[in-house]
């Protein structure tokens, strides 16, 4: 019999290439955590302590293995001057009508943010710090560093305008913009390590196939991600990259970033992904947050989790939702999701799958 591990040990086992007592569950559930704690996004998005509180309440109630600290996609852009629209029940967004970079050449005068002083970066770090102090000795804490380089560029310039720039502007200028975005992303990611996070991560959704082709991803987004990964992991913290949508066309490239973890969305064929990315890369995902997690029955959730684990055979796999879980996810569905992961992801079941 495998000895029982706590949540942190389980997550570290997977990162270290060992088989845990049961596959860890790290749901992308910050909105649901806020809901579970009886709060609104507007209560926490300027208050890191309250965000930590929401995670503590939710993790204790449901017993999953790791918390992902995430507030919105607007914080790093805001820290260097972007205008942000705050909403009551939904995450804040960048006001793309008022771009910071009215001209790409403005990038040469842009500031490097101070994680302890610029905008709300300190609130994210406060959330990490508070959470690590409270439960970090037995629960895994992933402090997201907000957005990746390509996405930051889109937020600072306006996505539509940046798409035009890619076709018309000088390549060196584009590279300088992306390099600036990489630098400010790295500053935040390293600050997450200093705040005590066990891992850090970026979302680079604009680099995904919903907006640009795989060729454009390889041309513009991949190198900055590779450099960012190398810099952050050299600082001593595992790094994760999350790109939403159907990443089947770029998953093999994502595997070349060197990121310890790739967070993959529900449209990705994870069985194929497990074959295409390096054996020591951890895949985190990828149950569809809307169906079955919100609209499915417990039986449908059970089947989805079973199929997911069979697809990876539990090799370097953290069970998660493919993207952020809705705050309207029924509690019984969330409970079923975690229970199914415990059942089908147990050491015994994984051994059966691998020796099959």
Write a structural description.
- The chain is an alpha/beta fold and about 350 residues long.
- The chain contains 15 helices and nine strands.
- The protein has helices spanning about 5-15, 30-35, 40-45, 50-60, 75-80, 120-135, 150-155, 160-170, 170-195, 215-235, 250-255, 270-275, 300-310, 330-345, 345-355, and strands spanning about 65-70, 85, 95, 140-145, 200-205, 240-245, 260-265, 280-285, 315-320.
- A seven-stranded parallel β-sheet has the order 1-4-5-6-7-8-9. A two-stranded antiparallel sheet has the order 2-3.
- Helix 11 (about 250-255) links the parallel strand 6 (about 240-245) and strand 7.
- The radius of gyration is 19 Å and the shape is globular.
- The model has no long low-confidence stretch (mean pLDDT about 100).
List segments where confidence is low: pLDDT < 50 over at least 5 consecutive residues.
none
The profile of the biggest β sheet is: 7 strands, parallel
Structural class computed from helices and strand pairing: alpha/beta
End-to-end distance, in Å? 19 Å
Shape: globular
- The tally of helices reads 15
Rg to the nearest angstrom?
19 Å
- The largest beta-sheet arranges its strands as 1-4-5-6-7-8-9
Arithmetic mean pLDDT: 98
The number of strands is: 9
- Give the strand content: 5-15%
Helix content: 40-55%
Secondary-structure element series? HHHHEHEEHEHHHEHEHEHEHEHH
């Amino acid at each position: 019999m495998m000895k029982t591990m706590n949540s942190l040990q389980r997550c570290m086992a997977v990162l270290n290439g060992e088989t845990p007592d049961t596959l860890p569950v790290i749901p992308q559930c910050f909105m649901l955590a806020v809901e579970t704690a009886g709060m609104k996004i507007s209560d926490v998005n300027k208050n890191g302590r309250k965000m930590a509180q929401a995670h503590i309440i939710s993790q204790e109630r449901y017993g999953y293995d790791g918390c992902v600290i995430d507030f919105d996609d607007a914080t790093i852009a805001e820290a260097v001057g972007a205008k942000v629209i705050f909403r009551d029940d939904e995450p804040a967004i960048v006001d793309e009508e008022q771009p910071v970079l009215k001209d790409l050449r403005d990038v040469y005068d842009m500031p490097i943010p101070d994680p302890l002083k610029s905008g709300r970066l300190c609130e994210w770090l406060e959330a990490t710090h508070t959470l690590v102090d409270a439960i970090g000795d037995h629960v895994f804490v992933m402090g997201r560093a907000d957005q990746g380089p390509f996405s930051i560029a889109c937020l600072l310039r306006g996505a539509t305008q940046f798409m035009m720039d890619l076709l018309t502007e000088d390549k060196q200028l584009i590279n300088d913009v992306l390099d600036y975005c990489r630098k400010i992303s790295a500053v935040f990611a390293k600050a997450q390590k200093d705040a005590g996070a066990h891992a850090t991560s970026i979302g680079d959704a604009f680099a995904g196939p919903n907006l640009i082709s795989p060729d454009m991803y390889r041309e513009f987004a991949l190198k900055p991600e590779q450099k960012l990964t190398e810099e952050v992991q050299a600082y001593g913290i595992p790094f994760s990259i999350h790109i939403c949508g159907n990443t089947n066309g770029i998953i093999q490239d994502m595997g070349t970033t060197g990121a310890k973890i790739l967070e993959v969305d529900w449209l990705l064929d994870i069985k194929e992904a497990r074959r295409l990315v390096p054996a020591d890369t951890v895949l985190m995902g990828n149950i569809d947050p809307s169906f079955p997690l919100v609209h499915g029955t417990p039986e449908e959730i059970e089947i989805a989790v079973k199929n997911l684990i069979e697809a990876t055979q539990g090799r370097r796999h953290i069970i998660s939702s493919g993207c952020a879980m809705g705050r309207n996810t029924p509690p019984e569905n969330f409970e079923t999701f975690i229970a199914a992961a415990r059942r089908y992801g147990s050491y015994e079941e994984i051994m059966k799958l691998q020796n099959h």
